[in-house]
Amino acid sequence: MPHKQERIEKLIKVIYKKWKSAFGISTQEHPDEEAIACFLEDRLSRQEKEEMKAHLVNCDACAEVATLQMKIGIVLEREVFPSMIAYVKDLVRSKEIAPVLDILLKLRDDILEILNTTGDVLVGQELMAVSILRSRRIKEFKDEVLISKDFKDVRVEARIKNKHGKAFSLAVTVRNNTTRELMRDLRVTLFKGNKRIESYLVDSGKVIFEDVLLGRYKVQIASKERKLAFILLDIKR
Ligand SMILES: [Zn+2]
């Protein structure tokens, strides 16, 4: 490892440690600073990269670390961080606009498998993080699954129902995160790529998209004034 890079990494470690202790954040489920540096340098595998993106979108702590590393990289070593700078910048910018719930699922006949999500999954009466599901070896669900995430303003619930492995239905429910009441006057829009597929103005806080084919989707949830949240949904066979 070149001397200069060693120095940068040392510096990152010191700053990160200070920052971490200041905010009292547990590192248990967070990627370490080395992994984040690898992400910024585009040295992770495709799978690791996807996991890191999903994590950074929803973890302010790690997004902050990534931003910090990026800044140090720009200052001390202009060549170190290539295309990922733009990605992290977009990420940080989009976080300010609206938070994201990521969901990655696999449909097989009448089984629904959770590959990953940044939300909590309903098991019986309990909402569980994916890390807990993994530790209990729960990943397959029959017919349908409910995934929920609390953001600053809203609680977003996505209920996904398997239609024989060929299509799915998606019910989105949005509540005020303080009062838990259904949000009124919402615009909920389903996109595939940049194409708007369906869009509804709802007064009841709930929208159902029926018979959606497998693929990658974005659901935008907005009030009259602004975007409240996004769901990024990737459902494969
Ligand atoms: Zn984190």
What's the shape? globular
User: Which fold name fills CATH's third level, the topology of the largest domain?
Assistant: Immunoglobulin-like
Computed CA radius of gyration, to the nearest angstrom: 19 Å
Succession of helices and strands:
HHHHHEEEEHEEEEEEEEE
Whole-number mean pLDDT: 81
User: What number of domains?
Assistant: 2
Give the termini separation: 42 Å
Q: How many runs of DSSP E, i.e. beta strands?
A: 13
Give the count of helical stretches: 6
Low-pLDDT residue spans? 22-28, 74-82
What are the bound molecules? zinc ion
Spatial strand arrangement across the major sheet? 5-2-1-13-12-9-10
- Class from helix and strand fractions: alpha+beta
Work out the helicity level.
25-40%
CATH class of the largest domain: Mainly Beta
CATH-wise, what's the superfamily of the largest domain?
Immunoglobulins
Q: What portion of the residues fall into strands of 2 or more residues?
A: 35-45%
CATH architecture of the largest domain: Sandwich
How many strands, what sense, and barrel or not for the largest sheet?
7 strands, mixed
